[in-house]
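Problem statement: downstream parser choked on a complex file, so we are re-checking the raw output for the zinc ion run. The parser issue turned out to be on our end (a line-ending mismatch), but while we're here, posting the original submission so the record is complete.
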Amino acid sequence: MHTSLKTVTMALLAAGMLSACATQPGKDAYLSDKTYKITILHTNDHHGHFWPNNDGEYGLAAQKTVVDRVRAEVKAAGGYSLLLSGGDVNTGVPESDLQDAEPDFRGMNRIGYDAMAVGNHEFDKPVPVLMKQKGWINFPMLSANIYKDGQRMFDPYAIFNLGGVKVAVMGLTTDDTAKMVNPAQIKGIEFKSPISEAAKVVPELRQKADIVIAATHMGHYTDGKSGVNAPGDVEMARAVKGLDLIVGGHSQNPVCMKAENVRNDAYVPGQPCAPDRQNGAWIVQAHEWGKYVGRADFEFKNGNLKLVKYELIPVNLKKTVKTADGKTEKVPYTELIPEDQKLRTFLKTYQDKGQEALSVKVGEISDKLDGDRAMVRSNPTNLGVLVSQAMMARVKADFAVVNSGGIRDSIPAGVVTYKSVLKVFPFGSTVVYVDMSGKEALDYLKAAAKMTPGAGAFAQFGGVKLVIEKNELKQALIGGKAIDPAKTYRLATNSFMAAGGDGYPVLNQHRGYVNSGFVDADMLRDFIAQNSPVKVERYAPTDVVRK
Ligand SMILES: [Zn+2]
């Protein structure tokens, strides 16, 4: 039902001829006094999860079943539906990353997405890869606020004709993208303020369409308190009048409110979910990874839009329960959803190819890199030093601190595969950095020095020379020089520690905090590849002396 008319409208839009060719102005196209049922389905922050996890949760094949069922139900009731994504299809699962997210984009195509917002992680790989991905899909990537050499890089919006009701979907991308991705890859690309772009585009769309939706990748911050992040959906809805619905992403949470401006951050799958509403705009987000399909059922009559029902449909999410014999098992929160077998077969080829690619050689190392639990949690090791230096190189930092509990395995001498790198870093933490004063840097090193040998918190360092006596920091140099309290230093660490993990000082609220989005395993893989054959003796752990 949404195919032929949609295609026509989009072709006209692409030719810039919509207003010239449309025989009727938008406002006259729907029938007066008729109630139109319009359902918006949505997901966001897919991050490479085309395949279900080991517990059989989520995955595109089961998601397709959910979407097909809802669409059939809506169609049978004489209604219309659109499926939208809040962006960040890329990055997070090695089998996907290694194939430039081809299974993800092609899978979304087969599910029948109608449009997606461009997310910051769409820029993790060089722009030609993104353009290749754009070619794999027959639905638009939308962003009104990304400019390349002064021109919009993507379509700012698409207009869908649902039985005469014109629905505009505008895309927006967080302006934090510029500091989250490798600057070399976004030369000539400008991420303008999505709020000021929306302020320009929304009035235009109110003329052209009956319903105005923003598919955004900006984040939902409760009561508009975005902290160190760029402003998100709540701030935009408050600043720009005229939006009916915001389908969001980026902050990766279910947006279910327990009171006005109070989000329920303990949302449990299967519970009722009340979306946020600001300045007349509904705001929705479906957590991440395809864990849910969000479903918003609207009724449109005589120009008025009413939300009739909203729900987050869990895609085979499971909870752990105790069995009678004292063991545990995983059981679904709600009814089990069968996978679409045709899509499963299609994706299986990619899954197999991805797993095969994990055993491909990344580089070579001259000696063992030591990450054995007993060693790395009590002593500085060559792997601790190499990882720290790889992080520093990735984000141009002056020094790095890594918790040894985050280093899960050694890498034997000789050929290194991606699989062996993933054994070191299985958690998918990301590399973060913080620009801090010399005084703050010294305080942080003191806190790190206190972490007791034997514990996962025990610190591995890079870029510093330290003397530590009985867990007290006695001497510290950064880059071979005394620390100047007035100078600014850049610390690299991981997202887990920055959040206060292992008892480290919380850094992710610090003014100079940036989460680069680079997954630690990918960072280590790239470092080994770039420096191969790696002379392991260069990473001898001699700069930290413990007494
Ligand atoms: Zn994001």
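For whoever reads this later: The chain is about 30% helix and 30% strand.
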